[in-house]
Each structure stands twice: as structure tokens, then as C-alpha cells.
TrEMBL record:
Pfam families (alphabetical): Stress-antifung
Keywords: Membrane, Repeat, Signal, Transmembrane, Transmembrane helix
Organism (species): Hibiscus syriacus
Domain Gnk2-homologous residue range list: 12-126
Keyword Signal: yes
DNA repair is among the record's keywords: no
Protein origin, superkingdom: Eukaryota
Annotated InterPro entries: GNK2, GNK2_sf
Transmembrane regions: 146-166
Gene3D superfamilies from the UniProt entry: Gnk2 domain, C-X8-C-X2-C motif
The protein, known as: Peroxygenase 4-like isoform X1
Length: 372
């Protein structure tokens, strides 16, 4: 096709593709009209071509006949006609790349047009037109945005740490005197087998360790293949789970505590059944074979059983008076911590129970007990 405004010997060559519903004559007229329109309207026809190819490269499709890529300053373009299969396209492009390596080995850029495919490479930005400048600008904008977000996140984190440090400095330890002697302050202490801790973490950890200690002492029964699974499950319920849940009636338990106890229990049950995680046996199947329910359900049962005993006391009883105590003082900002009463209220809501129902022991036991 002669270029407009040039001598007749100046010719522009190209590789074109039409829709499959056009015949050769209509396709030729469409290509000629399109090329004259592009060349006449803009002298930057090469940039327009690469922009269109770049759009095709990122468009959706399962079998796109066009690909772009690069490594460092080296950029590459490859395109096949639409009627080629993936294997035929690969063979054609392999031949084009081999001819590029042979004919254009020392050149900074080169084009290779074959009958059914087209390949092109360029080194540096001099011969790579089209959407590169826009892409580079977009990358720079993204990097700037990420840097701003990272800076803001780091600033907010520093402010939170600084405020927490100041609040810790401003807190005053309350001194408790017994017969004129100051009672030492501790984050946790042991009392009647309990590990009293401000967050309850140490008590849960202590119970899990105690459960494992009892389980190791009973491995002669739990790991014996001659003992049936039902008997192992019954032994676990009577000898090990009671140790694991000792004192849990008074915990202000969190979801993380329940998750840790369930994980420890499942390791014990899998070991007793001779199963590992590689066997891909569901937890429900292991529990069903041993006749053991979730430890969270037994935890709820024990807490509601204890709560029923507390509600059965007179309001003047020491246990009831302690239950109704409200601590004075300022509340910190943020969501308040989950309390023992909050756990019980959520249990009552899930089971559709009320405080008045605790007066009837049979109904209360029927509603709160978890069968195994």
C-alpha cells in the first residue's frame, strides 16, 4: 500500500486480520479503508498500532492470539491470526523468533512478518511506542499511593503505641493493706488449682497442660489397639475431659480460648484413634466413633449448670451479692471486654432460656444438658 504524500516506490507493509464472517474481497476493502483513515488522520500510526495491540493483550479471552511481555529494557510482541490453533501458533512463532535471532541478532529492534504470525522485539524505549509512557506513569502513581498509605499506617501505629505507653504511665497501682502490710500485686496467681489471671489466658494454658499430663498417664489405655473406641471415649470423658474443664464454670472465656481447647482435645482424640491429619478423617467422624461431643458444648453445659445453682441461692447469699457487684471507675475507650455475665446471657439467648426457668431443676437440666 503506497504511503500518502510519498513516491510510488515507498510502500507500507502490514499484517491484518478480519472477522471470520467477511470474505477476502470485503476484508481487503475494509483493511484499505482503515489504513488510509489511520495514516491520513495521524502521523503517529506506529503508536496507535501498539496501543491497540496493548489493549488486545490485556483484554479478556480464553484463547487470545496476541501476547506482550518483557524483561528489563527488552520488550516483545507476538501475534497469530485467529484461525490458528495454539500448537500451530506456537510453531509459527518459533520460526519467526529463530529468523529474528538470525537476521537481527545485532539490532536493537526488529520485526518479522510471516504468513500466519508476527513477532517483534525492541531494546530500550526508543522503538517501543504506544502505552508504555502511560503504563510507567500509572506505575509511578501506584507507587506513590502505596508509599503514602504505608506512611499513614506507620504513623497511626506509632500514635497508638505512644498513647498506650502514656496510658500505662498514668495508671496508678492500687495498694491493698492487710493488718498494715501491703499485699503484693501479681498479674496471676494460683488458688485451689486455678490460675487466676486478668485475661484468663494463663488459666486456659494451665488446664490444657494438666489435660495433656493426665492423657500421657493414661496412654496405656487410650493407645491400646485392643481397647474398643467406645471404651476409649468413655475413659476420656471420665478421666481427662474433667481435668481439662476444671474450673471453667467461672471463666470469662473468649473465642480464642475455645479454639485452643478444641484443638488440644482433637489432638488427643486423633491419637487415641490412631489417626493423623494425613488420613484426612473429618473431626465429626472421629468424635462420633468415640462418642465425644465438642468441648465447647460441654463447657457451656457446665457453666449453665453452675449458673443454675447460683440463681437458686437467696439474694442475701454471698454468691449472689458478689454476682451483682458493679465495679466503680472510668471505662477505657474501645469495646469493653467480654464478662462472665455476657457469656451466660449469650448462652441463654441461644437456648431460649430465662432466669426464672432455673427454679425447676428438671427443665433446666433437660434444656442445658448435652447428650453424648
Amino acid at each position: 500500500m503506497p504511503a500518502p504524500g510519498s513516491a510510488s516506490q515507498d510502500t507500507v507493509y502490514g499484517l491484518f486480520q478480519c472477522r471470520g464472517d467477511l470474505n477476502n474481497e470485503d476484508c481487503g476493502r475494509c483493511v484499505a479503508k482503515a489504513m488510509w483513515a489511520v495514516i491520513s488522520s495521524s502521523s503517529d500510526a506506529l503508536a496507535r498500532r501498539d496501543a491497540v495491540l496493548g489493549y488486545l493483550g490485556v483484554s479478556d479471552g480464553t484463547n487470545k492470539p496476541f501476547r506482550i511481555g518483557g524483561s528489563g529494557d527488552l520488550r516483545g510482541v507476538a501475534q497469530c491470526v485467529g484461525d490458528l490453533s495454539p500448537s500451530e501458533c506456537q510453531d509459527c512463532l518459533s520460526e519467526a523468533i529463530e529468523r529474528l535471532e538470525t537476521d537481527c541478532a545485532a539490532a536493537k529492534w526488529g520485526d518479522m512478518y510471516l504468513a500466519k504470525c508476527y513477532a517483534r522485539y525492541s531494546e530500550g524505549a526508543d522503538h517501543w511506542h504506544g502505552g508504555n509512557d502511560t503504563n510507567n506513569n500509572d506505575d509511578e502513581e501506584i507507587e506513590k499511593t502505596l508509599a503514602i498509605l504505608i506512611g499513614l499506617t506507620a504513623g497511626v501505629a506509632l500514635i497508638i503505641v505512644f498513647v498506650s505507653f502514656l496510658s500505662t504511665l498514668c495508671e496508678k497501682d492500687i495498694e491493698v493493706y492487710i493488718e498494715g502490710n501491703v499485699l503484693p500485686s501479681k498479674d496471676c496467681f494460683k488458688y485451689l488449682g486455678y490460675m487466676i489471671h486478668k485475661d484468663g489466658d494463663d488459666d486456659v494454658t494451665h488446664r490444657i497442660k494438666a489435660g495433656w499430663l493426665k492423657w500421657r498417664a493414661a496412654t496405656g489405655v487410650l493407645c491400646d489397639k485392643k481397647v474398643s473406641l467406645k471404651l476409649k471415649g468413655k475413659f476420656y470423658r471420665m478421666a481427662i475431659r474433667l481435668v481439662l474443664l476444671y474450673g471453667s464454670e467461672c471463666w470469662a472465656i473468649k473465642k480464642d480460648h475455645v479454639r485452643r481447647m478444641e484443638a488440644a482435645e482433637m489432638r488427643m482424640l486423633r491419637w487415641a484413634c490412631g489417626r493423623t491429619l494425613w488420613d484426612m478423617t473429618p473431626n465429626s467422624a472421629i468424635r462420633m466413633s468415640l462418642g465425644v461431643v465438642l468441648v465447647s458444648e460441654k463447657l457451656r453445659e457446665g457453666r449453665l449448670r453452675w449458673f443454675g445453682h447460683v440463681l437458686g441461692r437467696q439474694p442475701s447469699n454471698a454468691v449472689r451479692r458478689v454476682e451483682l457487684i458493679t465495679a466503680d471507675g472510668a471505662i477505657r475507650r474501645g469495646r469493653p471486654r467480654r464478662k462472665w455475665v455476657d457469656c451466660l446471657r449469650s448462652y441463654l439467648k441461644d437456648l431460649a432460656l430465662t432466669d426464672d426457668m432455673s427454679s425447676d431443676r428438671k427443665i433446666w437440666r433437660l434444656k442445658t444438658r448435652v447428650a453424648e
